[in-house]
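User: Here's a protein and a ligand (heme C). What would the complex look like?
Assistant: Let me lay out the input and then the predicted complex.
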Amino acid sequence: MKFWFAGLGLVAMMGAAPLLDAVAQTNLGAVVTERREGLKAAGENMTAVAAVARAGGDPRETVQRITAIQAWFATMGTRFPTGTQQGAPGLDTRALPAIWTDRAGFDAALTALGPRLVALREAAASGNVANFQAAVQATGAACGDCHRPFRAR
Ligand code: HEC
């Protein structure tokens, strides 16, 4: 990290503004790629969890997937740096500008998901199918509560 900043400093001193822009953009591109891959994996885990709920299967099988979803969302708040909204040059993202104009709303939607995932994991670990099914519904609703205002279709 230190090295990276030092590198940028050197580039700036050389007056290579276009190169500096390119470096910054490459880093934002990497942030978006990582963010989308992580969300895709979380989505796949959630789809698999929901399939067990629909089939009335053993909820305990899903505990590991839920733990993985929790681990991802623990870092979610750090993955939306300025300049990574939909429409930014060179970026392929569905993150709406509303995330940056209503950061408090975005953070609230993210915070609301945490306890839903905790409850989902507890319900899964308990093996109680009805509780698990209800918790899957509640979790899915929390995902949607953020997607509606903050993710492009
Ligand atoms: C706090 C807001 C927020 C919450 C909560 C949230 N998401 Fe998202 N999600 C987003 C945003 C913003 C994007 C678009 C990211 C991008 O394209 O850069 C996204 C994108 C996705 C994608 C598409 C990834 C891709 O292939 O590009 C999936 C799948 C997804 N979310 C699943 C989920 C699931 C499942 C949950 C609930 C467990 C959830 N999300 C909760 C904001 C959220």
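Summary: Residues 2-150 form a domain with the Four Helix Bundle (Hemerythrin (Met), subunit A) fold (CATH 1.20.120.10).
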